[in-house]
Amino acid sequence: MAERPIDLGWVRVFAAVGKMGSLSSAAGTLGLTQPAVSYQIRRLEEHLGVSLLQRQHRGVELTAEGRRLFDVTSRAVDDIDMLVRSFRSQSERPAIRLRTDYAFSSLWLIPRMHSFRLLYPEMDIQIVATQRMEHGPPDGDIAVVFGTRQEFGSNATLLLPERVVPICTQGFLDRNGPFFDPFEIASARLLHLDTRAPSPWFDWKSYLAELGINRDAAVGQGELSFNTYSLVVQAAIGEQGLAIGWMGLVDSLLSSRMLVTAGPMLEATDRGYWLLPPKAQSAETDRLAAWLISEAGIDALKAQDL
After folding, report:
1. What is the pLDDT along the chain (306 residues), one digit of tens a residue?
2. What is the CATH number of domain 94-306?
3. Which intervals hold domain HTH lysR-type (predicted)?
């Protein structure tokens, strides 16, 4: 069913009469009666004090004054209708909100969004990044959240299991390494991500504890802490120290050699970034979820069983 044109009063009526050259045809197009259209034109002529139409045996013809008014009104009606169609088109475009944290959005999601835009150029996406999400998304949203299966339940899909490794620049490693021994890592200048205790992911204390090292927070060559992981990574690129690198987030930096690994890798198989489906699914949320799973390198059939 076609969208009803916006009401423009006598302007639309006169433009339709001038375009069609017929009161009856204009009335049919506008959904009005012929007497109603005739009355509108008569009132307009009385108000302007000029004749706008010459009645012919078969229809009507514009007078010189009518032609001048028609040139203005027809352009105005066409421009307004075009603008209204664009407004309606924008309001009807499928839109979806994806909620996640700063690290995933800046290091994993944003570099890949161009490929999604190529696949689905008609979809609008709003990315909402927060420091840490505690609960699942409201209706209509998709979320990618860090945590454990126990937190998010059987409907969540593990996109990126937590695998971490110390990272730094080659220059920092050459000047301060190598870090073959965990004690050498513990005595290096470390870059920290601030978290509420206990940390929900590997921090330096838990990483070194897995290697049998109980590191005092005051040990080292000066500690630097940041409230977002993106800043931790930037500090590592700036050769400020050793950072914990989350595989999946820093892969491109490692492949480009902007950063290098500098110690053993550890893994927490039940912990990582999980895709939480919306409470109310749609074709758009299904497309986005499938794309996220594909980009994470997870087989679609396997994902259904997770």
Report:
1. 356 677 788 888 988 998 988 888 888 888 889 899 898 899 998 999 999 998 887 788 999 998 999 999 999 988 888 888 777 766 555 678 888 999 999 999 999 999 998 888 878 888 888 876 555 554 458 899 998 888 887 888 999 999 999 999 999 999 998 998 899 999 899 999 987 767 889 999 999 999 998 876 445 566 789 988 999 999 999 999 999 999 999 999 999 999 999 999 999 988 999 999 887 778 888 889 999 999 998 754 344 444
2. 3.40.190.290
3. 6-63
Check: CB of residue 192 under 8 Å from CB of residue 232: yes
Domain boundaries 10-92, corresponding CATH code: 1.10.10.10
| 254, 169 Cβ separation under 8 angstroms | no
Ranges of each domain in the chain = 10-92, 94-306
- Predicted TM-score of the model (pTM): 0.66
Rounded to whole angstroms, how far apart are CA atoms 181 and 195? 26
